[in-house]
Amino acid sequence: MVNHIPKYKHLVVLAERERHDLGEELNRFPCVRVSINGTPDNLGALSDYSEIEEVSLQSCDVSDLSALRGLSRLRRLVVAFGPLSSLELSFCSSTLEVLALSRLRRLKDLSTLPLMPKLEYLEVSHIHSIVPPDFRLFPNLRQLSLWNTDWQSLGWLVDLPHLETLHISQVKVEDRDWKPILGLKRLRHLHGMQNVFRSAACKEFIQLRPDVRVDQGIPVDLEKHPQTKEFLEELSRTRTVK
Q1: pTM of the predicted model as reported, rounded to 2 decimal places
Q2: Which tens digits make up the pLDDT trace of 144-197?
Q3: Could you tell me whether strands 98-102 and 76-80 are parallel, antiparallel, or unpaired per DSSP bridges?
Q4: Average predicted confidence (pLDDT) for the chain
Q5: Which end of the chain offers a freer environment for a tag, N or C, measured as fewer CB atoms within 10 Å?
Q6: Is 197 helix (H, G, I), strand (E, B) or coil?
Q7: Overall domain count for the chain
Q8: CATH (domain of 28)
Q9: In degrees, to the nearest 5, what angle opens at C-alpha 82 toward C-alphas 154 and 67?
């Protein structure tokens, strides 16, 4: 099944139950945003369309991202589920603004991530026993979501001076030291503090940093990008194209 939303130049390919030649669909429907569930035939056709700026891969049977190497303008990349085990993002390192990685059991090494000067949002969710990235390579990171992951410490937070939102729900921190969070001078939203470090630490943090909104929810994508809500509503109304 294929959905095309002309207003947003968004192509949605649902390839889990029926086969699709991605090259044919991209040729039929001009787009800058592509969302793929499952593994369509000819995934590498993506690289022939350098105008694509946003890609979402859900349950896609790929071990690396070589099929995306031609996307030199990529700004947003979401990868969830599937056997992805290698991250090579040099092809979009100068343009990527959003990177979300979720439930990728074979992904163990984030140290290969390159310098990404425009990256503002990073999510690592439900991925365990990973080699962490060098956070100094993301000098403009503003939102960081670490959900259900594990870390030896949070000492690397010192390398994120522009961080405004931190989400650490269900995170395991081996040294149990939450003090590095205090050093985030621009922090305004902290979610998961009580879940990870318990009530006493949470209360102490609130006393020391009354300027931070703690465990009261964080800005969500629909708040920052209201057009996403509008897009989802239109997607539900649009006619399915097969």
Answers
A1: 0.88
A2: 999 999 999 999 999 999 999 999 989 999 999 999 999 999 999 999 999 999
A3: parallel
A4: 89
A5: C
A6: helix
A7: 2
A8: 3.80.10.10
A9: 100
Contact, 93 vs 116, CB < 8 A? yes
Q: Give domain status of residue 206, yes or no.
A: yes
Instruction: State the residue range of the domain holding 77.
Output: 1-141
HEC secondary structure over 92-141:
HCCCCCEEEEECCCCCCECCCCCCCCCCCEEEEECCCCCECCCHHHCCCC
Task: Pick the last residue of a domain from 141, 158, 188.
Answer: 141
- Residues sharing a CB contact under 8 Å with residue 226, sequence separation 6 or more, in sequence order: none
Do 129 and 189 belong to one domain? no
| CA dihedral (150, 155, 160, 166) positive or negative | positive
My answer on whether 68 and 137 are in the same domain is yes
Residue 46 lies in a domain: yes
* Mean pLDDT, 10 residues at a time, the chain of 242 residues: 90 86 91 94 93 96 95 96 95 97 94 96 93 96 94 96 94 95 96 93 95 73 46 48 44
230 found inside a domain: no
Same domain flag for 180 and 77? no
126 shares its domain with 206: no
Q: Cα(first)–Cα(last) distance of the chain, in Å?
A: 5
DSSP per-residue string spanning 26-69: HHHS--SEEEEEE--BTGGGGGG-TT--EEEEES---SS-GGGT
